[in-house]
Amino acid sequence: MPPTRLTFIAVATSFTAVSSLQSLIIPVLSVIGADLGADAIGQTWMLTAWLISAAVATPLLGRAGDLVGRRRMYLLALGAVAVGSVLAAFAPNLTVMLVARVLQGLGGAVFPLGFGLVRDAFTPQRLAGAIGGLSAIMAVGSGLGTVIAGPVAAAIGWRGLFALPLALAIASLAIGAAGLARSAARSTGRINVLAAVLLSGWLVALLLPLSSGNQWGWGSPLVIGLFATSAALMAAWLSVELRSRSPLVDMRVMRRPAVWTTNTTALLTGAAMFGVWAYLPRLAETPASSGYGLGIDASAAGLMMLPMLVTMASVGFVAGPLSRVLPFSAQLTIGAFLSAAASLSIALLHGDILLLAGSAAVLGLGTGLVTSSTPNLIVRSVPADQVGIATGMNANIRTIGGAVGTTVFAAAIGGSVGAAGLPAESGYVAAFVIGAVLAVVGGLVPFLGRSRPDRRGARAIRVVESPLEEFAEAA
Q1: Residue 202: in which H helix or E strand, if any?
Q2: How far is the C-alpha of 196 from the C-alpha of 374, rounded, in Å?
Q3: What does the alpha-carbon distance between residue 161 and residue 27 come to, in Å, rounded to a whole number?
């Protein structure tokens, strides 16, 4: 089998394994909590532990891959996923489950490492299609957890959910160990330890209150103190990076218009996307006695989301060829607008399961375009030896956006809970309208950039800043 095909299969398999872990336990969180004796805060920590671990590991292992070789770090991250999945499946209590989730979160590094491996293996002519396909697989994997969790848990129990990521991680390890070539382009220098500590610190201090603020209280001294700590550590981190001769994250790369506009769009669309993913099934599962809910079970809600996976996968695999007539920056904006339309449709038309399934399909189209175009814009706008850290930071920014989005949705919906213990319809409407606004703003951000040539990097391609300008040039 050609090395490029082996690389694609290995990376695609690992992307599916890791991305599914992000959402796999959400629909059955209360069931897992009941079995392990975890209260609402403990259940939240099952999500938070993965989130923080992934947020820290993604840029650090991505940068380590740039320095010492992506293949080595990639296999290490996959090994952590496999061990974490075994621990999670047999976890006797909450403590072991949290350790398992931290190990699984280390697998977040496979995204920047995988994109770097693909850039090393593919020619420029085939690179866009490969990255588009992998991005679609990554997005489908995230949605897959929401779709299959209910039916699988009902059939064989929640512990059986971890068999899928375990099998995929082992398969990717075997293929990767046998078929992945060592990275050709490596960065020089070392990992800046102080920058790494500060980056990890402000990420943890930011994500903790975002994930647990609803339980702790947004005005509590702990939440306010963590946000203040995060801001202070971020300022110190930026100062260290700007002064360092060997930065962990090269701010000259991050400041490029193609990079910062794409990252900003990832933040905003990530907030909208994860908010809709988390709360669309809950809206449909709300009892019919509420006057607006459909009263369906978790399995039916999963099937309702299935059209999203189909459209997401379909558009992701055609994004590369489509870029010959519709540039990635234009795809990014169109995808954000489609996601906004889907979120607004859910806010206004949620009285029928077919309407919700149709909105989910449109959301899949928008998400597929956004997730396929984002890494393509990043990869072709940075030097080859910066791919790991640049795509790692992009993945992190989307993760932060997801935490922000689910928090905003939770606040809007949770704040409308009435005496019967059910959210008011107005709470869901407000949440999905906010999601639409976030996606629209995200779609407008790429218009802020301007086009200029980029000659840095061995295989760097033209830096793309303006969707209108790039579209005109392609036409």
Answers
A1: helix 193-216
A2: 25
A3: 11
The reported pLDDT for the residue numbered 206 is 87
| Span 197-241, pLDDT tens digits | 898 888 888 888 887 787 788 889 999 999 999 999 999 999 998
Q: What homologous superfamily is domain 1-186 in, according to CATH?
A: MFS general substrate transporter like domains (1.20.1250.20)
Q: Using one digit for the tens of pLDDT, what is the confidence trace for 11-41?
A: 999 999 998 887 788 778 888 999 998 887 7
Find out whether 62 and 250 touch, Cβ atoms under 8 Å. Answer: no
Judged against a pLDDT cut of 70, whether residue 183 lies above it is answered with no
Contacts 24+ apart (CB under 8 A), 413-417: 413/279, 413/282, 414/214
Q: Show the 3-state SS of 18-82.
A: HHHHHHCCHHHHHHHHHHHCCCHHHHHHHHHHHHHHHHHHHHHHHHHHHHHCHHHHHHHHHHHHH
Q: Are 132 and 326 in contact (CB under 8 A)?
A: no
Amino acid at 313: A
Tokens 């234009």 -> residue: 330
pTM: 0.77
CA distances from 397 to 191, 264, 401, 409 (A): 20, 8, 6, 18
CATH T-level assignment (fold) for domain 252-475? Growth Hormone; Chain: A; (1.20.1250)
Q: How far is CA 471 from CA 93, 316, 386, in A?
A: 54, 19, 26
Secondary structure letter of residue 450 according to DSSP: -
pLDDT of residue 438: 95
